[in-house]
């Protein structure tokens, strides 16, 4: 079983979420950049080179957490944003969201999560 952080969701600062994703055999890394003068923090995840990749959108330390996790699913030349579990949910829920984005088709994802665009 993956570690849990009760009442607060995965702690990005400690690497808990990265460790949880890697424990499932996923290639996960933190990518930090800047967009329009604002920090842009993402956890980039892949299962293999043939399938989609996922960019889990994160907030920087000190910023208020959004109510839910959003992730960008990249397949070939298409980018789709999906809304996942609440940010305060357990680590296993966030990892399951990322795994679903890696393996499920669009119709199956739409039954579980909200497509934002």
Structure explained in plain terms:
With 117 residues, this protein is an alpha+beta fold. The chain has one domain. It has 3 helices and 6 strands. It has helices spanning 16-23, 91-103, 106-112, and strands at 27-35, 38-46, 53-58, 68-75, 78-86, 114-115. A 6-stranded antiparallel sheet has the order 1-2-3-4-5-6, covered by helices on one side. The longest helix has 13 residues, at 91-103. The protein is globular, with a radius of gyration of 13 Å. The N and C termini lie far apart (33 Å). The relative contact order is 0.19. The model is unreliable at 1-7 (pLDDT under 50).
Radius of gyration: 13 Å
**Which ranges are low-confidence, i.e. pLDDT below 50, for 5 or more consecutive residues?**
1-7
Beta-strand content estimate: 35-45%
Instruction: Report strand order across the widest sheet.
Output: 1-2-3-4-5-6
Give the overall shape, derived from the CA principal axes.
globular
Question: What is the tally of beta strands?
Answer: 6
Series of secondary-structure elements, N-terminal to C-terminal: HEEEEEHHE
Kindly state the mean pLDDT as a whole number? 84
Note the gap between the termini. 33 Å
Q: Helical region count?
A: 3
Portion in helices? 10-25%
Structural class: alpha+beta
């Amino acid at each position: 079983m993956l570690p849990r952080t009760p009442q607060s969701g995965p702690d990005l600062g400690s690497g808990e979420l990265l460790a949880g994703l890697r424990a499932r055999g996923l290639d996960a890394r933190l990518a930090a950049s800047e967009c329009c003068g604002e920090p842009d923090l993402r956890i980039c995840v892949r299962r293999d080179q043939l399938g989609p990749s996922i960019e889990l959108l994160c907030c920087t330390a000190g910023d208020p957490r959004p109510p839910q996790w959003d992730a960008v699913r990249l397949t070939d030349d298409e980018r789709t944003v999906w809304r996942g579990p609440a940010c305060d949910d357990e680590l296993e829920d966030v990892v399951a969201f990322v795994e679903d984005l890696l393996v499920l088709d669009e119709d199956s994802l739409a039954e579980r999560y909200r497509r934002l665009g």
